[in-house]
Amino acid sequence: MADRHPLFVPLVLVGGLLFGFGLAYSHMARPEVVLSFLEFEDFGLLFVMFGGAGVTGLAYLLAPRLLGRAPLTGNRFERRLKSFDRNVVAGGAIFGVGWGLSGVCPGAAYASLGVGNLTILWAIGGMFLGAYLQGRWRSRASTTADAAASGAD
Amino acid sequence: MDPVSLLPIADLFPNGVARYAIGGLLVGLGAAVIYLGTGISAGASTFLESTLSYVSGQSRFQRYVASRDWRLVFTLGIVLGAGVYAVTFQGEPWSTDVRWWRLLVGGVLVGIGTRIGKGCTSGHGICGVGSASRTSLVGVGTFLLVAIGTAQLVAALGVTP
Prior knowledge:
The complex is a heterodimer of chains A (153) and B (161). Chain A has 153 residues and is mostly helical. Helix content of chain A is 69%, strand content 0%. Chain A is globular and about 45 Å long. Chain B has 161 residues and is mainly alpha-helical. Chain B has a domain at 97-161. Chain B is built from six helices and no strands. In chain B, helix 2 (46-52) packs across helix 3 and helix 5 (123-130) packs antiparallel against helix 6 (134-156). The two termini of chain B are 31 Å apart. The relative contact order of chain B is 0.09.
């Protein structure tokens, strides 16, 4: 977009590089490591999640106080708060079956590609397929809901 | 030497904790850098839908048209960052022996679940937990428990890896 700060995309790239390097360094990019965590053989993965959340927690706490508004976008600093409904539990459960079956989650899958794991393309292809299927269902559901709503008028 | 290996709880951490803790801090730092500059909480799974908006006219994906280019850059960064690790630390490429059908079927469920459930291990797990969001804590609790149950069941059925 034309009105974006020239450093916006470079900053996103730097963030992605750190994120991906960290996923590889932590070995979370390997499905076997995730599965050994879920099977209670190695609890180290807890440190990845809580280490990561600790750093972002600090950012969420300090950014509004120290910076006021985001320098590259002028956005307010807001926490990541999503509304709660049944979808959070239902979607979380579906995600959990998939994660437990494969040992793969989205970020770790991209990183896994970066460490040379071409076999992971099965999982990435599956994720796109799954995201497409739910998008199709929900696009149709919202069209039907709109039609029903206008029909009721 | 990893200090944890001196303690009895070393059984819980057969590979120590240093790699996990340092890796996790870097993952958090990556998300924090983007947040500090832009105010955006970047998650990894929105990329799936935002990228689909390039090729599909389904109305659900159109909400991500404005962010799809930088989400592509974020994901490219993740792949390249892991590639830097591979070149500097790892030596030979890692592959996985997890069976292809587990990756494929698991991937489909992950793709459905993360989008319906409003986040994945990075959106809920890193940014949402960092935000002390109750929604994200419930989301993480749900997928963690279900994933543990699933992985243990699959292992008990003798499917390895």
